[in-house]
Each structure stands twice: as structure tokens, then as C-alpha cells.
Specification:
Chain A has about 400 residues and is α+β, with helices and mostly antiparallel strands. Helix content of chain A is about 30%, strand content about 25%. With about 80 residues, chain B is an all-alpha fold. The chains are: A alpha+beta (about 400), B mainly alpha (about 80).
Chain lengths: ~400, ~80
């Protein structure tokens, strides 16, 4: 038997709402199957399961919102199947600042010195029923607040004249709060340093034009795909930038799963993973990028895409600013940014000429790397982009 | 296909890549990307949709001509006439 848990789908997730079960008790599940759909502040996520077996029992019904790590279902594992290791504590949820992202009543749930003791179950019930513990006197031993106290208070609230309930924040507002929590933590905890290089893109642009002129429109490559592939390959050369910061040390990753920052129609952004970007052909990367961006904008991503990124790439596009100095998405340790492709004066063989160029920036965690290694990464990136045909 | 039909098709396909944009307010001679928030991926998806529907495979070297609604309609009208 194994428990299937509410996954952590990014550093900014503390809880998820079970929207739909795709499997029912008795159904067989296989590694990679979509077992359920979970709503987070950022997206509706198709949650994959990474074990083979049969659904024994469902523990959380649709519509319920539960914290990450809560058992959602019991899986009877196939013979010989080993219970998967607990997911790495790679993305500890961000403790969202109460003022920014918790409903006001949650602030009252924090244990306060001198307050009556309360069991976790009663505390949870209070949260569910919106009972303010500060106004409550426990009737249990030593003034302990019990579940029946909470229930009584909730009943009293219900018979009291209704107060206008605060409107549930919409997806856009919750998205902003999730970003605020993750980026505040990043800014607070990660000692960032930033490096930049202006990269001559004349060869890459010429190669791409030539390549695309031979292709039908549906098969053409976007220039951003070259940036993704080159970044993924350069990370192999400076692998510490592809690590995750867990328990005060950097944990390396064998695979390069580039999180691609995708801006969303209603505002905000997500950065789901393009898996194994260093190993994919440009054609596969293009196909998978199109699919990923489309699903990100439709609010339909897979759990592995939310939880697997080992690094983030943000490209401001051809209408964007010239350079981006980003904040790292914890627990990642690096973010690579690209500004707008622009014609720039560049010195070639002693002559100043105009060439298409892009400013690449690296935001890196100083606990993991320094300017020397960061520079090496940017130099490798630049070199790779001078030989686009080899990408 | 008349220019009005082409225009309707273009606006419909554009609204698919930019569902939040108000197509009725688009000024035909103002740069599209100054009016609706689309990126290079949206633009590519739009052109792929044009190809799928009108069978006009716009060369990448012609992308810079596709700046305004009128310019796109004009380009497609000429391309369809020469088919």
C-alpha cells in the first residue's frame, strides 16, 4: 500500500483543491497516468502518479481544499513495485505573508503566547468554519478549545445577523499573491548576484532564416528555441547552476528541466518545465514549447511540469525591454534572462558594425556559485549560440 | 474571397490567439502589436491558422509586412488572387 499525496506544485503552493478524480477505486494506475485534477492559485493541474497499482480508496473528495502532503488516495501497489521515495523536499512551500495571501481570519489561528491550548483538529475546523479563535473561550480541560467549542461558535455565528462576506479572491488576485509569496521569499532568502553579456546573434538569426525558408509555416522554429537549447547545454558545463537549494546545500540534478516563464492572458505568469531540454532536438523543443505555452495559457498543466523545473528561463520577446534582471524561483539557484533582439553596434575585426544582438543575464545564488562560474556559463552560452547548426 | 471575408477570417483567427482582445476596437491602420498583447508564439500560431484556413503559407521574410490589419488583408488578398 502506498499513499498518494497532494503534490507540491511549485514553491508558491501551500494547498490545492481537488477538482476531479480521473481514476476511481478499482481502477489500475500506471506510472505517468493522470490520476486527478487539482486547482492551485496558478493553474488547473493534471496530477500524474508515479507508481503502478490499483486505486484502493479515495480519501479526499472533489471540491475539498487540502494542504500539500495530505494523503489523497490509497494505492495498492503491484507486486514487486516499491513505494516511491517521498518526493524530495525540493520545493518547500512558501510561508505566505499573512497580510498578503491569507484570509484575515487565518491570522487569528497562529498560536499566541498565553492563549488557550487547542488541538490541530479544532484549529483546522476553526479555519474551515471561519471561527476567530481570539474571541473564543475553551470549555475543555485547562480552557482547552475543543472541536465542539468551535462548532458552537460557528452555530452562533450562523444565527447572528449575516455580515457581508469578503468576496473570494479571483484567480488573478490569487496568482498575484502566489507570485508575491514566492518572490518575497526569493528576495529575502537568496543572495542574488547578476551578470550580463551582450551576445552577437547574427549567425543564429541568419541560420534560422535559412532553415525556416525551407520549412512550411507549421514546422518553422522560433528564435526562442535556440535560446532554450543553448541555455540547457551551457548548464551542463556549469552544473551547479542547475541545482536546487535544499536544507542549506545545493542538490545537483542530472537532468536539465528548463522552466519557461509564460505570461498569462489575465496577468501573472507561470514557469512550467520543458523536460530534458538539453537532450531534445530543436524540432521537438519547438513542438513541446508550443504545446506547453498553449496549455499554460489555457490553465491546464501537468503536475510534473509544475514541480520539476531545475532552472528558469525568461525571454522578454521581441517587444520587451533590452535586459531582464530577474529573481530566482526558489528552490532553484539560477534564472537566465533574455532581452529583446536588437540591432546593436558591435566591434568586429576592429570595425564597428550593426549586428542583431541580445543581452543575456544570469541571476545566480551566491551560496552556490560566484561571478567566475557565472561568467563561464554566459561565455559557454555565447559560444553555443555562435554555432546554431550544432544545437 | 472578398476583402471583407478575408478581414472577418483574419479577425476570427486573431481572436483565437488573443481571446481577451476586443476585435471590434481594432484600428485597421495602426500596428496590431500596439493594440493587442501578443508575443511571437501567438503570432506564429496566428499565421499557422491562416495557412490552415486560407492555404496561404506566408514566407518568414514577409512577416515584417504583417504589421496592421489592413496590411494583412491586402497581403492575403494578393496571395489568394495569384493562386
Amino acid at each position: 500500500m502506498a499513499e498518494f499525496l497532494m503534490p507540491i506544485l511549485g514553491a508558491d503552493m501551500t494547498a490545492g483543491t481537488l477538482v476531479e478524480w480521473h481514476k476511481q477505486p478499482g481502477d489500475a494506475v500506471h506510472r505517468g497516468d493522470i490520476i486527478a485534477e487539482v486547482e492551485t492559485d496558478k493553474a488547473d493541474v493534471e496530477v500524474e502518479i508515479f507508481m503502478n497499482g490499483v486505486v484502493e480508496k479515495i480519501l479526499v473528495e472533489t471540491g475539498e481544499k487540502v494542504p500539500v502532503g495530505t494523503p489523497l488516495a490509497i494505492i495498492k501497489l503491484d507486486a514487486g513495485e516499491v513505494e516511491p521515495a517521498a518526493p524530495p523536499p525540493a520545493a518547500p512551500p512558501v510561508a505566505a505573508p499573512a497580510s498578503a495571501s491569507r484570509p484575515a481570519h487565518a491570522a487569528a489561528l497562529q498560536p499566541a503566547a498565553g492563549r488557550a491550548p487547542i488541538s490541530p483538529a479544532a484549529r483546522q475546523l476553526a479555519a474551515e468554519l471561519h471561527v476567530d479563535l481570539a474571541t473564543l473561550t475553551g470549555k475543555g480541560p485547562e480552557g482547552r478549545i475543543q472541536r465542539r467549542d468551535i462548532q458552537a461558535a460557528a452555530d452562533a455565528q450562523r444565527t447572528a445577523p449575516p455580515q457581508p462576506a469578503p468576496a473570494a479572491p479571483d484567480r488573478g488576485a490569487r496568482m498575484r499573491q502566489a507570485i508575491a509569496a514566492a518572490m518575497s521569499r526569493s528576495n529575502r532568502e537568496i543572495p542574488h548576484f547578476h551578470l550580463m553579456s551582450t551576445i552577437d546573434m547574427a549567425r543564429a538569426v541568419a541560420w534560422l532564416s535559412e532553415e525556416n525558408s525551407r520549412r512550411r509555416i507549421a514546422d518553422r522554429l522560433l528564435y526562442g528555441v535556440l535560446l532554450i537549447k543553448a541555455t540547457a547545454l551551457a548548464l551542463r558545463d556549469v552544473p551547479e547552476l542547475n541545482g536546487l537549494w535544499v536544507d542549506d546545500r545545493v542538490v545537483p540534478n542530472e537532468s536539465v528541466h528548463t522552466g519557461i516563464a509564460v505570461s498569462l492572458p489575465g496577468g501573472g505568469l507561470v514557469a512550467p518545465a520543458l523536460h530534458d531540454a538539453d537532450r531534445q532536438s530543436l524540432d521537438d523543443l519547438m513542438k513541446n514549447l508550443r504545446d506547453l505555452v498553449m496549455r499554460a495559457r489555457a490553465g491546464s498543466l501537468r503536475s510534473s511540469e509544475m514541480s520539476d523545473p531545475t532552472v528558469t528561463i525568461t525571454s522578454l520577446g521581441d517587444e520587451g525591454a533590452e535586459a531582464v534582471y530577474g529573481l530566482i524561483y526558489p528552490p532553484q539557484v539560477a534564472l537566465v534572462g533574455f532581452g529583446r533582439l536588437l540591432e546593436r553596434p558591435v566591434s568586429v575585426d576592429g570595425q564597428v558594425v550593426s549586428r542583431p544582438a541580445v543581452i543575456a543575464t544570469l541571476a545566480a545564488d551566491h551560496r552556490v556559485a560566484d561571478g567566475h562560474r557565472g561568467s563561464r556559463f554566459l561565455a559557454t552560452l555565447e559560444r553555443l549560440l555562435q554555432e546554431p547548426e550544432k544545437l | 474571397m472578398t476583402n471583407d471575408e478575408i478581414r472577418d477570417t483574419v479577425l476570427r483567427l486573431l481572436s483565437e490567439v488573443a481571446p481577451e482582445a476586443d476585435m471590434a476596437s481594432i484600428q485597421p491602420d495602426v500596428r496590431l502589436r500596439d493594440q493587442i498583447d501578443i508575443d511571437s508564439m501567438d503570432a506564429l500560431n496566428f499565421l499557422i491558422a491562416i495557412d490552415a484556413e486560407l492555404h496561404v503559407d506566408i514566407a518568414e521574410s514577409d512577416y515584417p509586412k504583417m504589421t496592421t490589419l489592413n496590411a494583412i488583408v491586402e497581403y492575403l488578398s494578393a496571395a489568394l488572387a495569384s493562386q
